[in-house]
Task: structure prediction
Amino acid sequence: MNDNLNVDFYRSKKTNQQQMKEKSHSKRRTVLKQITLTSLGLPLIHQLKLQEQENTNEFNLMNMKGNINHSVCKWCFSQIPLEEFAPAVKLMGITGIDLIGPKEWPVLKKHNLVSSMCNGAEISLTEGWNDKQYHRILIDSYIKHIDMVADAGYKNLICFSGNRRTIDDEAGMDNCVEGLKKILGHAEKRGVILQMELLNSKIDHDDYMCDNSDWGFELCRRLASTNFKLLYDIYHMQINEGDVIRTINEGHQYIGHYHTAGVPGRNEIDQTQELFYPAIMKSIVSTGFKGFVAQEFIPKNKEALQSLKKAIEICDV
Result:
């Protein structure tokens, strides 16, 4: 055996010894932890839950890539109380919950989560800024909620175009511009971003006006404010117009928030539906987007939180 082989053998032996020593220390820490928990009188099931929580935290710290700010829409998981939902999603690497109004903000703050898309200022999805008859109510409500959002330290506040009814798209856009300009100055002063959601009118929201990205992008251009953006719902826009990645790449400067769901069905974003979310997420990241991507699918899986965890893993590119 030559000198080089002797050195390699010694190094290999030393490495193996170090690994055995590290495993021994690891086992020792585990045993000591179990002894400590037992001495505190904790039942075995509680010990296992604590261990599982620690492992989950370690997993998140090691594996979250940090390119996507993850959030989730609570209404899709209505069967789970917010007090239980908040800490559960935080363990998955989620940092915000969408469509939470002021009354429930204290729960989010308790768990160090943000209200990533605030609501409560709107009248409804169908009665919006495209119809002048609602402007007085909307202006008063949004001025009030802009202050509430800013005072709470949050940033995003949702709004809606409303349904067409007998209003054509050009008149509806003019009405939106007229009404929104009356609150945009206040939003700019308070650092709040108004986000109008794009919804499909083909399946879910018949007659909704802001149902295509071209109309939404033009509204952004006319308002010409960085405090007005679009909430680009990937599910809705796949249904109404498709061409998701090109649209994101070409209009990303007008998009302030994203929602996800599987098409068709609005369920899990896994291989059972037609959208390939890893590619969509990579496209979003490539635009330099720093806002939130919120999961808004309705889980078919009885283990709803497992579906949510899987969705976060799919989108964490």
